[in-house]
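DM from R.C. (forwarded with permission)

"hey, sorry to bug you on a friday — could you get me a structure for this? deadline for the figure draft is monday and I only need the backbone to look sensible"
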Amino acid sequence: GDGSKFRDGWNYVVKIHMNKHDLVLLKFIEDLVFRIFAKKISYFPEIKTNRGAVVLYSKFIYNFFDDYLTYERNKTLTVRLINRVIKYDKEFLRGFLLGLTLSDGYIKNKFIFVSISKQLAKNVFSILRLFGFEPGVYLQDRSKYLTHGKYKEHNQFRIVLGREQTRQFKIFLQDVISDYGFNATLDQLKRYE
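My reply, with the result:
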């Protein structure tokens, strides 16, 4: 979702960007990182903005993402799973959906996932179908809009579930959270309540 990775001298750095007020989400990330990688996170909230960053210093975690994701020079436009969705374990795909929902998804009355990466949108669509959901796909043509007066914006691909499907998807994601042993609701993680 909202992250980056880079080399800083000898350090391998992974950052997860978030709202500094998402304290339940921060605890969830901290618990998951420790459970999966046995690593502690560093957290840096900005004083004058609402931004915060979870920072990990680890060559293993830095390289870990490349076992699952591929992207070209423009990461946001090209990021996607390396393999076809059916090649992945269902537990991985459940976690992948949860992560994308927590970072880039909207899930109140309807689930909406927006991405400028056509292939990532296809991944999400395929994963939802694999789990029995029936998503709609919509293209928002933004090529005619200019950003800052000179750059054309990229098209946005929207994956949407209707109200009843969203209700079922919330239950699905809540089960994923519970299976991780974390005592919070999806709404708390999204800071909807």
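R.C.: lifesaver. The CA atoms of residues 66 and 163 lie 35 Å apart.
me: no worries. The chain is about 40% helix and 25% strand.
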